[in-house]
Design brief:
alpha+beta; seven-stranded mixed sheet; 16% helix; 7 strands; 122 residues; OB fold (Dihydrolipoamide Acetyltransferase, E2P)
Length: 122
């Protein structure tokens, strides 16, 4: 005896338990370190950021698209306002496209955990 209604209920229940009803969240990665250099392209085409890891060893160069949000000490700035030595946290998506840059200059007290937690997943 085949019961299509019970099979359908099992499928719906398993989809709900596995989270099939919610859209997938974008994958966001972050890199933290210090700014080594910044190059801003002309005509609003974005720029390029070279940063070193916290320990100052490994360097990473990344392209920065024009519409990226750049924050310096909680204030919005342009990419060109970042300087060598600024502490930086860069968020990028699964395609290695930079989505947001948070930077700190000077001596700060406390932690920047609230900045890390507030990076948007889009």
């Amino acid at each position: 005896m085949d019961r299509p209604a019970s099979k359908f209920a099992c499928v719906v229940l398993s989809m709900a338990l596995l989270g099939a009803d919610s859209p997938p969240r974008p994958f966001v990665q972050t890199h933290e370190g210090k700014v080594v250099s910044v190059l801003v392209f002309t005509q609003g085409r974005g720029g390029r950021l070279v940063m070193a890891e916290k320990n100052g060893k490994n360097r990473k160069m990344m392209g920065v698209p024009a519409p990226v949000t750049v924050m310096l000490n909680r204030n919005p700035v342009t990419l060109g306002e970042l300087k060598n030595g600024d502490r930086v946290l860069v968020a990028f998506d699964k395609y290695d496209v930079v989505t947001e840059i948070r930077a700190w200059r000077g001596t700060t007290t406390g932690s920047h955990t609230e900045y890390v937690a507030s990076i948007r997943p889009w």
